[in-house]
Amino acid sequence: MAYSDKVIEHYEHPRNVGSLDKNDEGVGTGIVGAPACGDVMKLQIRVEGDVITDAKFKTYGCGSAIASSSLVTEWVKGMKLTDAMQIKNSQIAEELSLPPVKIHCSVLAEDAIKAAIADYQKKHGTPE
Amino acid sequence: MTVAAASLSTSDGGLEPFDPALDHFARLGLDRAWRVDRNALEDGYLDRSRRYHPDRHAGADAATRRAALEHSAALNEAYQVLRDRVRRAEYLVKLGGVDLDSSDPQTGAPHPEQSFLIEMIERRERLEAVSSGGTEALEQLRDEIEAELEQVFDAGVAALERGDTRAAAAELVHRRYLQRFNDEVGALLDELEAGSG
């Protein structure tokens, strides 16, 4: 199966690979997995006020999963939490031209950012 | 029509219509169970593959030729799944109503607990340090993961045998994550060995 140029670009030059301190009060961590293939993804955000100022990820999976998480970290930097909550997997899939069999990779990235936001909100006692 | 083809088509005595609803066990004449008699599996496959082989029906009418193709393809698929113990276990789980290849929240693969996912990430993070210890450290890690794979698989089979599909599915999902990790360790080993060789 052919990967799109954008997927290959993110795969070869992933943005924001790394970790933030998960115990830091300003950091939210989302860890999610795709049971069908065994991919795992960690996505972290640093929040100041209601704005995401930094984002890091580590993804152990296929090129599409890496590209999806890389793209999301790029998107959310500078975004308000409420806007980041609105990111849809379909936007990720469209941006990366993911084929139908790889849509679940974009779902994983959406789940990861939502989980990271939920973790941050839990730390600050502001559940949805 | 050649004489050879005509004699072949008359020797087969026709084929039963293809039934797409048969499960893999029924297709091979086996009971639906984890324990499969190896000889019954091989014999069941060989007998049927001879009977369904499209070459035997090359001179038959179009419907029979089509049925022979469908029978053969489904038979091969059934055989490939049932002879592989992991695929067989996952297939039994699927027959029990849980499809590990699906992400459907009701009928798809169950999500493992968060602590397991965290562990899968942390073990990857430690892998960078392990791989600096050379092939020996990686081989040791691979042996450990392979032992875990066996353990988790055995737990899945035990759950299958007591008829607990959900528990079996959970174990087999753990197995898939571990298998993925093991594949990555294997790939690292290949790289190191290629580099030193």
UniProtKB/TrEMBL annotation, chain A:
<keyword id="KW-0479">Metal-binding</keyword>
<dbReference type="GO" id="GO:0005506">
    <property type="term" value="F:iron ion binding"/>
</dbReference>
<dbReference type="InterPro" id="IPR011339">
    <property type="entry name" value="ISCU"/>
</dbReference>
<comment type="function">
    <text>A scaffold on which IscS assembles Fe-S clusters. It is likely that Fe-S cluster coordination is flexible as the role of this complex is to build and then hand off Fe-S clusters.</text>
</comment>
<dbReference type="Pfam" id="PF01592">
    <property type="entry name" value="NifU_N"/>
</dbReference>
<dbReference type="GO" id="GO:0016226">
    <property type="term" value="P:iron-sulfur cluster assembly"/>
</dbReference>
<feature type="domain" description="NIF system FeS cluster assembly NifU N-terminal">
    <location>
        <begin position="2"/>
        <end position="124"/>
    </location>
</feature>
<dbReference type="InterPro" id="IPR002871">
    <property type="entry name" value="NIF_FeS_clus_asmbl_NifU_N"/>
</dbReference>
<protein>
    <recommendedName>
        <fullName>Iron-sulfur cluster assembly scaffold protein IscU</fullName>
    </recommendedName>
</protein>
<dbReference type="GO" id="GO:0051536">
    <property type="term" value="F:iron-sulfur cluster binding"/>
</dbReference>
<keyword id="KW-0408">Iron</keyword>
<keyword id="KW-0411">Iron-sulfur</keyword>
<comment type="similarity">
    <text>Belongs to the NifU family.</text>
</comment>
